[in-house]
Amino acid sequence: MLSGSREDTYKIGNKLGKKLKPGDVVALLGELGSGKTVFTSGMAAAFNINNVHSPTFTIVNEYNAGINFYHFDAYRISESDWIDCGFDEYLDGEGICVIEWADNIKNVLPDNLIKVTFTRKENPDLREISIEGVEF
Question: What is the mean pLDDT of residues 118-135?
Answer without folding.
Answer: 90
